[in-house]
Amino acid sequence: MRESDKRPLWIVVVLLTLAAAALWGASTLTWIDVPEGTVFNGELRDELVGADLVSWPVPLALLALAAVAACLALRGIARRLLGIVLVGVAVWVTVLVLGGSAYDVDLSTRAPGYDSLPGSPAKVWWGPASALAGALSLTVAGGLLAWRGHRMPRMGAKYSAPGDTRAGETARDSDVDLWDALSEGEDPTTRDR
């Protein structure tokens, strides 16, 4: 197999890994800077990160990592279907981020003593931008899988279990013979085959 045939597969693997990192990063980066003394879920907060506002970035990061293993193990139409699913997930992430539902939180509660301090919450784009970068990586990886996935190399026989043969009966009969020899008190490793 030529190196150029392997390149799209490695591009997909790198893109999925980058998507996982970007989505995980979206959960840890700031999405909203809040004024001093703001109470959120019973705690004084200076900022709200993605994990405070939405629950989907970390599970989708894990999905992207699982897709790495799946794209290496699957073949043909299954790999193309995986690509379509990844594009669908990317569209969903984009709608969630651009729809602004993450910002629908009540930040009007101020701690005593902070009531008179000025300030209002400000959106920060690092977190959402990271989520959108993850969605873009998922889109490109999914598009490549849907378009060229059936042509990409897949794991071959060298990744199969030891002793796995195309003629399953031959391997089974050989195993039965070994167990029969052991049952009869013979050492199957010393006899000639």
From TrEMBL:
TM regions (residue ranges): 9-34, 54-74, 81-105, 125-147
Keyword terms of this UniProt record: Membrane, Transmembrane, Transmembrane helix
Keyword Hydrolase among UniProt keywords: no
Annotated Pfam families: Trp_oprn_chp (PF09534)
Annotated Basic and acidic residues bias: 166-175
InterPro entries named among the record's database cross-references: Trp_biosyn_TM_oprn/chp
Region feature (Disordered): 157-193
Top-rank taxon, per record: Bacteria
Name under which the protein is recorded: Tryptophan-associated transmembrane protein (Trp_oprn_chp)
The species this protein was found in: Saccharomonospora viridis
